[in-house]
């Protein structure tokens, strides 16, 4: 039987429906909303993402200021730009695209962002809040992964809590802005969560872990890493990877970390690339920009992580 294809474009379309109204309400009240992006160099995935954000911001009416910087920009120059954006009241959200060139220390750059404008939760304060289960912002890629899962569960009529409580979620890749936040969101849903990194691949192989996964989240940045022997038949596979692949005719196209052609026929459900996690990530970043603008203005925001279900007592109190 062939897998159900989880449609990221449809999910993104539904998720963005209320955003233009949210944006114009802020603007009518004279409250600033604006997104600043910093792209250093021209890495394929980062440039692709920046272009998409640019288009989506225009569509939703969010003022966007792109800051393209040459690959050899010194770290001080990047920090100075961030400080300027921190102090600019027309900017409510700041996104620094990864990966950064080797001469720039990611942690130092992320620490320079005003935590209230840190829409990807990369500043230690926001990363800590997420790890503690009380996030200010949910990083957009991990948010997209779980939004797709939740939406898919609703569509097949499975109770979200029942599903997560009994499920093993295996996360391949544990970077600070994709893998680790996804692990945190899995914990928050009270699933059993396992993290697999490159050492597992180099030593015992990742199949001994991934084959047990009810939910397999793959964010390694390695095209074709997950093949049919890595998955079980009831798995729900979420492919985060965005990798450039050059066709025989010289055209570059995007592929995920999952070998879709061999894996899709075997599993229960799967996200494609393109058209899976990516489009929802884009919308979530703009949602976080609106959230930041509201928080900066002192307006209420929804509680994004009230998901945990208390475990009933085993014995009634006498
Ligand atoms: N679709 C979307 O919305 C988004 C897609 N992406 C894409 O997701 C991918 C991952 O991004 P990101 O987390 O930033 O990448 P990083 O390079 O920062 O991290 C990759 C992680 O994967 C692990 N890894 C690498 N190779 C293997 C392997 N063979 N087996 C197991 N684990 C492995 C690394 O392990 P170790 O820690 O041991 O080095 C590391 O933890 C990229 O393709 C990126 O373009 C990113 C953001 C959004
Ligand atoms: N700080 C930071 N945060 C990121 O989230 C981040 C980053 N840096 N650096 C680069 C990667 C890559 N990334 C993408 C997200 C969505 C699409 C996306 O929407 N892609 C479409 C592609 C459509 C097409 O052009 O074919 C899709 O998947 O359907 C692509 C790439 C975010 N990243």
UniProtKB/TrEMBL annotation:
Pfam families for the chain: THF_DHG_CYH (PF00763), THF_DHG_CYH_C (PF02882)
Every Tetrahydrofolate dehydrogenase/cyclohydrolase catalytic domain range: 6-120
One annotated Gene Ontology cellular component of this protein: cytosol
Record: residues binding NADP(+): 173-175, 242
Single GO MF descriptor: methylenetetrahydrofolate dehydrogenase (NADP+) activity
Reaction it catalyzes: (6R)-5,10-methylene-5,6,7,8-tetrahydrofolate + NADP(+) = (6R)-5,10-methenyltetrahydrofolate + NADPH; (6R)-5,10-methenyltetrahydrofolate + H2O = (6R)-10-formyltetrahydrofolate + H(+)
Residues of the Tetrahydrofolate dehydrogenase/cyclohydrolase NAD(P)-binding domain: 166-294
EC number: 1.5.1.5, 3.5.4.9
Pathway noted in the entry: One-carbon metabolism; tetrahydrofolate interconversion
Function summary: Catalyzes the oxidation of 5,10-methylenetetrahydrofolate to 5,10-methenyltetrahydrofolate and then the hydrolysis of 5,10-methenyltetrahydrofolate to 10-formyltetrahydrofolate.
HAMAP family: THF_DHG_CYH
Full protein name: Bifunctional protein FolD
